[in-house]
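Morning!

This is the sequence you dropped in the shared folder:
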Amino acid sequence: MAFQKSRRIGKSSKEKGLENMQLQRLLSYARKAVDEYSMIQEGDHIAVGISGGKDSLTLLYALHGLKRFYPQKFQLSAITVDLGFEDFDLTPIQDLCRKMEVPYKIVRSDIYNILFNVRKESNPCSLCAKMRKGALNQSIKEMGCNKVAYAHHKDDIIETMLLSLIFEGRFHSFSPRTYLDRMDLTVIRPLMYVDEMDVIGFKNKYDLPVVKSKCPVDGYTKRQYAKELLKQLNTEHPGVRERMFHAILTGNISGWPERSLRVPRGKNCPDIC
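The structure's back. Tokens below.
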């Protein structure tokens, strides 16, 4: 299936050209991450974890586009863990996956009720993440997938480093590729080179069907604090964001795979690679 440029009508040729550039930019960054950290091998079956937000939908578009020309052929599926919030309607995402011809599975859970009604957690994020990932990974294995793609972008990686420094006293962040031996499952992060502003731009250009989070603590977390801190630091010291990311890439962080900087351009790779 070809990409839908937008669900809106009446686009000018200039606007359509800008959308194509936005898509090419996204695919270029995703290809760079996949190549440099050997994220995809021949025959992989990759599940995209869909939360309903802009990041995961952008990741779905990126891997769907990459699948068309990447030399190593792979299968693509999508999956969402429904936490049990009321009025969390995933129909727009079901429709998008149907149009993309990407198999989509919704895993129903009672996580919201357990966290907020049974346990009455005041700081539920850590436990929620563990419960969600447990349900997600188990269902992914049942789907026959050997890899799961998370939608963490460049800003997420920098913010995680800040949180680790401030609250743990160590220099650490998400790894581009992680093997979970207990699940025999590999986690990959193809959006690691994509700026959050580019994700926002892509969402707007392609009118992505974002399903807004119903979480009552959304926007009041340590991660939100790190996001605002990073913005402030980069305003006061222009370029510090990129310097932090460079430090992460070159910092020999424990658990990070070796980075390959010289990747030959294959005959199936378009000019954007």
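Headline: Strands lie at 45-49, 75-82, 104-108, 147-149, 177-180, 185-188.

More detail when I'm at my desk.
O.
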